[in-house]
């Protein structure tokens, strides 16, 4: 007698486990008719009835029960052997601020998954600075100036490169720029980094109109909706500028060590998933606004 088809055995195992052709078909993404027909063929090949067809489902015969025990065990061994040959999926945990996640990382993240489908990515979006040891984070992107803490590598992703941005309508009404003080004639939008305060200093008196948000992304969205002028890092405004939601009124050309850095622990054993993520992030920064 010829050996039974492996697909037939998988259908039998599922039908026996569920005691139902319909549920077996749903699990295997087949039609109920296809499963029922294959089971009939299997019974004909074996010359034995494996199921009793009842109005409310299936019932294994005595022969079917014995056969099911052996087949379930055999399929389990096959699946276990196959799983051992498959490479285990790598995992990487990346800590970023919510603004960086929404404005820069998330729009690009599918590209990383296409290049590295074997790596599962967890994004931890928080204003809190994650601890590499206690929080289980592999890589972080931090805004600031190194050194950040002892025992970490910090690689520059992009200079801060602040830009004054507004909606296209406000930009069309903005005069030819001569001095930063001209911003004081317009509503300003500030995030928790207080860049306007750093730029304008004492010139920001009580009469200055300022709307404040705790996140850069919210300040950018308010600017895009015509509520004023925001100061935002160049790397974060790229998508909104390309989509013509924001227009750049002014760029800060000052050179500073302040910027966005890819940060990860020193001295740990080689982590291929982390290396892949770091290299990909750095390669993506080349497409940001220059």
Structural description of this entry:
The protein is α/β, with parallel strands linked by helices and 290 residues long. It has 3 domains: 6-85, Winged helix-like DNA-binding domain superfamily/Winged helix DNA-binding domain (Arc Repressor Mutant, subunit A, Orthogonal Bundle); 90-160 and 259-287, Periplasmic binding protein-like II (D-Maltodextrin-Binding Protein, domain 2), CATH 3.40.190.10; 162-251, 3-Layer(aba) Sandwich (D-Maltodextrin-Binding Protein, domain 2), CATH 3.40.190.10. It has 10 helices and 12 strands. Strand 3 (90-96), helix 5 and strand 4 (119-125) form a beta-alpha-beta unit.
CATH fold-level name of the largest domain: D-Maltodextrin-Binding Protein, domain 2
Question: Number of domains in the coordinates?
Answer: 3
Rounded radius of gyration (Å): 30 Å
Number of strands: 12
**What is the strand arrangement across the widest sheet?**
4-3-5-12-6
Please give the count of helices: 10
Helix content: 40-55%
Distance N terminus to C terminus? 72 Å
Summarize the biggest pleated sheet: 5 strands, mixed
CATH architecture descriptor of the largest domain: 3-Layer(aba) Sandwich
